[in-house]
Structures are given as structure tokens and as C-alpha cells.
Amino acid sequence: MTSPSSGRGRRAIGLALIPLAGGALVGLSLPPIGVWPLGVVGVALLVSALYGRRLPVRVALGMLAGVGQFFISCAWALQFNTAGYIVLAIVEAVFYAVACALVPPGRGRFPVAVGALTLAEWARQTWPFGGLPLGGIALGQANGPLAPTARLGGSLLVAGVTVLAGTSLAALCTPVLTQWAHRRRASPEGASSRSASHQAHRRRAATEGAASRSAGRAAAAAALGGVVGIVVVVGLVVVARVFPPSSTSASNAHGSTIRVAVVQGGGRRGLSQLQVPASVVFQAALKETAHVPAGTSLIVWPEDVVALSRALAGSADEAILASVARRHHATLVAGVTEPVGTTRFRNEIVAFAPSGRLVAEFEKVHRVPFGEYVPWRGFFSHFASLEDVPRDAIPGRGTGMIATPAGRFALLVSYEVFFADRGRSGVRAGGEVVLVPTNTSSYSNDQAPAQEIAASRLQALEEGRYVLQAAPTGYSAVIDPAGDVLARTALSRPAVLVASVPLLQGSDLFLKAGNLPVLLAGVLALCGGWGAALSRRERRRRHRRRWPSR
Length: 550
What we know:
The protein is of the alpha/beta class. The chain folds into 2 domains: 12-185 and 205-243 and 515-546, no CATH class; 249-512, Carbon-nitrogen hydrolase (Nitrilase/N-carbamoyl-D-aminoacid amidohydrolase). The protein is 48% helix and 14% strand. The chain is built from 15 helices and 16 strands. The protein has helices at 4-29, 37-49, 55-73, 82-101, 109-124, 150-172, 174-185, 198-242, 278-289, 316-328, 377-380, 420-428, 447-463, 509-513, 516-546; strands spanning 248-249, 257-264, 298-300, 306-307, 331-340, 344-352, 358-363, 392-393, 401-404, 407-411, 433-437, 467-470, 477-479, 485-488, 495-502, 504-505. The strands form 3 sheets. Strands 2, 3, 4, 5, 6, 7, 8 and 15 form an 8-stranded mixed sheet that branches. A 6-stranded mixed sheet has the order 9-10-11-12-13-14. The two termini are 37 Å apart.
């Protein structure tokens, strides 16, 4: 005979597995696996599990969903520090726990879930340490039909539309789930019992019938809301696809199109900068640049491919970079790191004109926490070795746009590609092409590089520009404004990607308004859902006062 406690334990385990599996599906929707429908199904599982649950249970379910997602989507961190990987996944999961705490258990839960989870994604991209956007929902949709909505509201809208699609799916399944739950709650022996009085039996049947009718009406309303949600999702996708980008060709000394070359020197992956001599990376880039064809207007080198022990000005490396630009009669854009004292350094992107003159410099704004700097270094030094990050990068300033003889370019240095506001800043300042010099060589597998490509695809959609990504060991890529990857290198191998890239101007809705419309929509959905929930509670209280139980 099964005890009641063991039955409750099995039900609790079954309930916990639903959001955990949902979060895992969202994690698997991200590259390198990248099966985008899994993200929608994962959200649907989480939202379905919240129905009728008390606040502490909703918090736990949201936490489990976050753990399922980020333990998979942030597995790249495991190779650096196991404890850091666990802390990162748990911190990210807390945002979902808070979002699920805000979801009411009954009426109004669907719009609140859409608003709360979308706002949670925005909060992740903002705090702590300036935001930790890797592993987010939007990256799993970069190769799916929802991605074009980035033109309307950036990656945040892509995340919101994914949440809306998943929540609508959960709402459409509500009638089936409600009927199943009602049948399970019904007592099979109650209807046939002869020990109860005829009057008690009729009263119980009437109560159960009223409850069933009420649940049926609520389920039908939820299904209707699900249909409306799907219509909104389809409408947003159609608008994003049917109306062409507002980009127009720019006038330039080279015409509206330039010939570009993205250089990847190649080399072994999974090694830190301290394990690879700077000269090896520099020479690999120089060797591969020799294959750049004549007539190229722009040569793009990766991030920190020139790692210096002194300032760039007046150095032998500066003379070499200038000679490369002169030899190819092209603008050369390259990543440079140079020390500032013994505890700090600059992570810069520099541009040399075809004449060999240095014409532009930009310092990376969004630094990688615990990768390029250690926040609260004194505090964290008590818990882990910080030998791999001996110096802190100095945060840069500015829009990210640089003007060169080849054109005006919006720069997103490595980690910055995950932040929609950085691309928007550079393009609004006049960027005609987006450049992403990056360095993912320290990652031994392809998870982080693949997520970076997904982020670049979303940036191309958001900004309505071509994106050129250059990495020492890959992935390097050429991406068009529709988010399609026109060319991509293999990992570790040396390569030069050559393409003719239009210089574009103009702006779409996201460039004009940023995240504000999506944030407002999220707040309205959250408030509207809670308004419906509270109004239902008030009606119930009035009904109980008018018809007290006997």
C-alpha cells in the first residue's frame, strides 16, 4: 500500500521536472545545438507548471527553469572555473525565480508571465556588472522565424516574442490540462457511494458541477487568449518581414560598396593569452594578410591580435601595421592591447589609412567581468585565484563609431556584440557597417563562438547593416542585414574572407526607439494581468459576503 507521503513526494518530483525540462529545452535551443522550437516549448512548460501554485512554489519552479537553462547555455564557463560556472548559472536563474514569483496562480497569469519573463531578460542584460547576456532566450532564435522581429525591438523583442509564443502555447493547452486535472480530483467512489445521504450527494454533485463549469469557462478564456497571442506573434513577424529595411546606400569615395577582407590567423584553441606568445598570434595574422587580394578597401584583424608590452605610439608594431596598410592600399582595422602601469591595460581598436597614418582609435566599453577585469578584486581574491586576470582593462567611452577613408564603421569589440545598445550607439552615430573584432581562442569548444555568431546575426537585423566578425581562431564571418551568414570560417584554421559589402545608412524602429517600447509593453502586460487577477478576487469576496456559506 502506498503511503500518502510517498505519493506527495512523487508528485513534487514530477512537478519539479517540468520547469527543469523546460529550462533545459531553452538551453538546447541556443547554439551550437540551435533548435529554435525548443525555446518556445520550454517556455510553455514553465508557464504551465505555475498554474495554481503558491508563491514559494512558483519561486522554486522559476529557479529550476533557470538552472535547467543556464547550466546548459553557459557550460562554456565550466572550463575556466567550476565554482564560477555554478555561481553564474544560479545568479542568472534568480532572475527567472523573481519573474515567476510575480506571476499570479490563476487568472491573469499568462499576460503577467509574458511581461515578467521579458523584463527578467532585460534585467539580466543590465545587472550585475553591466549585464550578463550570454545564454539568453533570444540567441536561440537567431536562426528561426522570430529573429526578424529584432528590427522592430532588438534582441529584447525577440526574447519577448519567444516568451509570448511559449505562453500562448501553454494557454492553448489549458482546456486539455484543466479537464485532466478535474478528472483526477474527482473521487471515483463518491458518485456510487450508498452510505451518504441523497441530499448530501446532490449538494456535492451541484458543487462539483459548478466548479467544473467555472473551470471550463476559465479554460476557454485562456485558450482564446492563446489564439490572440499567436496572432500577435505572427503579426509582428509578418510586419518585420514584409516591410523592407529602411537602409539606403551611402555615398563614399569608394562608391556605395567596398571590398573587404576579414583575416583569421588560425591556431590552437583552449589556451589563454598567458599560454600563447603574443608574437605567434601577430605573425599568424601577418602571414594570412599576405593572401588579401588587390583592390581591397578594408582589412579587418581580430581583437588584441597585437598584444604589446609598451604603448603603441612609436613602437615597431605600429610601424609594421602602417606598412601593411600602405602595402595593400587599404584601411587596416586591428585590435591592440597595451599596458597602463602594472595593474591596468587598454583594449583598443585602431585604424590605419592606406597612407599608413593612424586615423582612429576606440577603447572597448563593455569589459568582460572576471575575464578582462575583476570587480571587487580584493573580495573575490579570498575565494579564487585571480592569476589569469592579473590586470584590469580600462573601460572606454564613446559611441563606437570610427571614421576612416574606407567608410564609417560601428565597432563592437567581442563581448559588446551581446549588447544591443552598443551596436545601436555606433550605427546611430553614423556607422555604415558593423565590425566585430573578437577573440574566443581561450574557449576549447564551439559553444561561445557559436553564440557570438548568433549575437552578430541579431545585431545585423537590429542595425540594418552588414556585420564583419574577425576572430584569431574563429568564428570569423560575413553577415548581411537580413541576419544571414554569407561566409564563415572553420575553427582553428587560417583563412581570409573576402566580400563586397555595401555601405548603408538609414534607421529602423529599433534604432530610433531602442528597448523602450518593449519595456513599456512588458510593464503593461504585467500590470494588466495583475489587474485581472485582483478584480476576480474582489468579485469572489463580494459573492461570499452576499451568499455566505451555510
